[in-house]
Amino acid sequence: MLRLVLTALCLLTVAPGMVRAEIPVDIELLLAIDCSSSVDDEEFILQVQGMANAFRDPMIQEAIQGGPEGVVGISVIQWSSDRFQNVAIPWRLLAGPADADKLADEIAAMPRTIGTGATSIANALLFAAESFNGNGMEGYRRVIDMSADGENNQGLDIHIARAQVLARGIVINGLAIRNEFPNLDIYFQDRVIGGDRAFAESAKDYVDYRNAIFRKLFRELRDVPVAVGPELDPSWKEASLLPHP
Fold first, then answer.
1. The whole model's pTM is what?
2. What is the pLDDT of residues 76-127, one digit of tens each?
3. DSSP-assigned states of every residue in the chain
4. Tens digit of pLDDT for each residue in 165-179?
5. What domains can be seen in the chain, in order of their start residue?
């Protein structure tokens, strides 16, 4: 498998004018982090640390290699209002624990690039969908992992945006952080998620986010049924959430 990946990487660097091969991956997974005004700096850090720790977990690292290709593609964006979205971590391949650890370090060191703004889940979804174009990968699945602590309150209508994303064959999963909106998980189920086997994970607050993002990543990477997700626990379940040294 490693030889196939290296060969594919070589093909991506061919001379101008030649056809560029797309690398087969088990999933192209885009992680979208809420940076709207309702997310303070401490809450942003909790998201970043929780996501980084998830990629360091042995279960996640095993799941990365568990598909037919043994390779996944990952990217991270930050978003808030209809005008504020950017790529925080460009697309890259993960083919094993070393790649996952490197990505975790990048996520942990990732600065907040959007400090304010309304909550435009709709425009963030469209931005995310566009970022799949030309990423050099061809996944069995394309998935947007949308995290938010509030409802869409600006920009395009959420139903229109969701329909446009689903029309491209992209699945939308959700992670509802319910610290301000206790029923946000219901909103995600009804209006945000969509596509084949789409699901919404729930976190009661930003401290609980670390457990929720672990469960969500495991279910997405392993492509396991929704029913098996909630009882999964990360290796740090009883430990304090501390920055990686």
1. 0.86
2. 999 999 999 999 999 999 999 999 999 999 999 999 999 999 999 999 999 9
3. -HHHHHHHHHHTTPPTTSPPPPEEES-EEEEEEE-STTS-HHHHHHHHHHHHHHHHSHHHHHHHT-SSSS-EEEEEEEE-STT-EEEEEEEEEE-SHHHHHHHHHHHHTPPP--------HHHHHHHHHHHTTTSSEEES-EEEEEEESS---SSS-HHHHHHHHHTTT-EEEEEEETTS-TTHHHHIIIII-BSTT--EEEESSTTTHHHHHHHHHHHHHHT--GGGSTT---TTTTS------
4. 999 999 999 999 999
5. 24-228 (3.40.50.410)
